[in-house]
Amino acid sequence: MKPKYRRVIVKLSGEALAGEQGFGIDLNIVTDVAKQLVEIRQLNVDVAVVVGGGNLWRGATGSAKGLDRATADYMGMLATVMNALALQDAIEKLGIATRVQTAIEMKEIAEPYIRRKAITHLEKGYIVIFAAGTGNPFFSTDTTAALRGAEIGAEIILKATQVDGVYDSDPHLNAEAKRFVELSHIDVLRRNLRVMDATATSLCMDNNIPIMVFNLAVPGNIRRAVMGEAVGTYVRRGDKSD
After folding, report:
1. Which residues does 37 contact at the CB level (< 8 Å), separation at least 6?
2. Total domain count for the chain?
């Protein structure tokens, strides 16, 4: 059975790399994620990754405590680079070549983001990890995933989270919360469901990029999502809601 998608962006939150400790980098989880990424690369899927930095630093939190917002966001971008390097190391130990590309130039440890070079790397079979967000404060790594997805021609954004999809309310607080099987981008915006932030969702809608939201903690879910299986909530362009 062939994969449904040939080029994907996998969006990883920083928190997903922290594990139960809730802070820092859990190398066991990083290794597990790396194995899942290598698995889909071995299916001849072009794999790009956008990683957040919330396990190390959150710009919004720093700003709320009095730090200049732009400065706080730049610090968050540096946190994403640390996560990207950890993931790169884990992937390469599994025998797959990678490239980390950063939106802020730091040539001693990573390449600067260049769209054509990123595409060339993907075509060669490398896993490309995009770090440092968009390089601009006030934009999230969700927006980075949408932007890079549009730039490299990704067929879907696979948003790996700590829940098994999108709900109409917080399932941790409401036992009656309903999980959506399928939504449109406009549904997400109208209902303020926070699948991704509004800028990211709008970018995906404008560029007809679907989003699959699923639980990263379930082994094999990234592969299932690439194969087109219903592993979470599918967000597509259109006006029909679940």
Report:
1. 10, 47, 49, 91, 96, 127, 222
2. 1
The domain that holds 200 is classified in CATH as 3.40.1160.10
Tokens representing 17 are 């790399």
Coil, helix or strand at residue 18: coil
- What's the CA gap between 140 and 85, in Å, rounded? 19
Q: What is the pLDDT of residues 147-206, one digit of tens each?
A: 999 999 999 999 998 889 999 988 888 889 999 999 999 999 999 998 899 999 999 999
Residue-number span of the structural domain to which 75 is assigned: 7-236
Distance CA 30, CA 160 (A): 13
Residue 155 within a domain: yes
Does pTM top 0.85 for this prediction? yes
The tokens describing 50, both together, are 């956008």
